[in-house]
Amino acid sequence: MRAALLIVLGxxxxxxxxxxxxxxxxxxxxxxxxxxxVMAHHSGALxxxxxxxxxxxxxxxxxxxxxxxxxxxxxxxxxGMDQGFIDxxxxxxxxxxxxxxxxxxxxxxxxxxLKPVGETCQSCHQKYR
Length: 129
Known about the structure:
The chain has 129 residues and is mainly alpha-helical. It has helices spanning 2-26, 31-51, 57-71, 74-77, 83-102, 107-128.
């Protein structure tokens, strides 16, 4: 009885230790995840503005500018990626520059500015996610 109890206790401790180790390995470099979270936050805010027909030029500009500045962190956040990934990231940066320069003041203009950005994001995520 004592041996069975010790075996069960050992297995439980082993499982808990494995879970902690796996979580530590998963979170060893938070930078890539953080970059994508920031991108998702700002693009989500812009999408929600379009859906809700609440597109204010000043708020649009802030979110687009933050997307643009964060997009420059994509390549450094994912070191060792192939040239195709780098090209996609550069294309996204270029499209965000165009969106910032367009300064969309209404929802139709914002939706038009976000369309190529969303397509590039989707293309990259299909290939590299």
